[in-house]
Amino acid sequence: MSMKIYFAGSIRGGRDDAQLYYKIVKHLQDKFGQVLTEHVASLDVKESGEQMDSVEIHDRDMAWLTDANVLVAEVTQPSLGVGYEIGRAVEMKKPILCLFRPSSGKHLSAMIGGAVNIPNMTVKYYEEAEVINVINEYFAALQK
């Protein structure tokens, strides 16, 4: 089943995990469908973001999110934009997978970690070596 996937990861909040984003997006593309936001995983994207007007970025990304079947968000690097995208996806009743690495030494936002009563949202704590398995398990359950 080919899906349209919206991948969310930090851009202006910091690019420390760009290599991991690349690995995640590549796997999503190879196994599950089209990643509408593949640029988030580009190693060429800097913290300054894209050379587009903020309104254009917002409107384009919201159109992609509306079109997507599922949102996958790597939430280890705090990002206001990713939090906003998750909130909008909850509102749209999209299935949401949030991925967080406790070994990073960072703390997951209580608004994400505490969202256990949101039926379309799943938060998975993982280690980097496990990320592909975590994604595969989530999509296997989603496609049932």
From TrEMBL:
Which molecular function GO terms apply here? 5-hydroxymethyl-dUMP N-hydrolase activity; identical protein binding
- Fetch the Pfam families from UniProt: Nuc_deoxyrib_tr
The keyword RNA-binding is annotated on this UniProt entry: no
Gene3D superfamilies reported for this sequence: 3.40.50.450
What GO cellular component term, any one, is given? cytoplasm
Q: Does Acetylation appear among the keywords?
A: no
Q: Main location per UniProt?
A: cytoplasm
Give compartment(s).
Cytoplasm; Nucleus
Binding sites annotated in the UniProt record for substrate:
Y21, E85, S109, A110, M111
Catalysis: reaction(s):
5-hydroxymethyl-dUMP + H2O = 5-hydroxymethyluracil + 2-deoxy-D-ribose 5-phosphate; a pyrimidine 2'-deoxyribonucleoside 5'-phosphate + H2O = a pyrimidine nucleobase + 2-deoxy-D-ribose 5-phosphate; a purine 2'-deoxyribonucleoside 5'-phosphate + H2O = a purine nucleobase + 2-deoxy-D-ribose 5-phosphate
Q: Which InterPro entries match?
A: 2'-dNMP_N-hydrolase, DNPH1, Nucleoside_deoxyribTrfase
Please, one GO biological process term?
A: deoxyribonucleoside monophosphate catabolic process
Question: Per UniProt, which keywords does this protein have?
Answer: Cytoplasm, Glycosidase, Hydrolase, Nucleotide metabolism, Nucleus
Q: What is its EC number?
A: 3.2.2.-
Membrane-spanning parts: none
Q: How does it assemble?
A: Monomer and homodimer.
Q: Sum up the protein's function in the record's words.
A: Catalyzes the cleavage of the N-glycosidic bond of deoxyribonucleoside 5'-monophosphates to yield deoxyribose 5-phosphate and a purine or pyrimidine base.
Q: Which family does it belong to?
A: Belongs to the 2'-deoxynucleoside 5'-phosphate N-hydrolase 1 family.
Q: Which PANTHER family match?
A: 2'-DEOXYNUCLEOSIDE 5'-PHOSPHATE N-HYDROLASE 1 (PTHR15364)
What name does UniProt use for this protein? Putative 2'-deoxynucleoside 5'-phosphate N-hydrolase 1
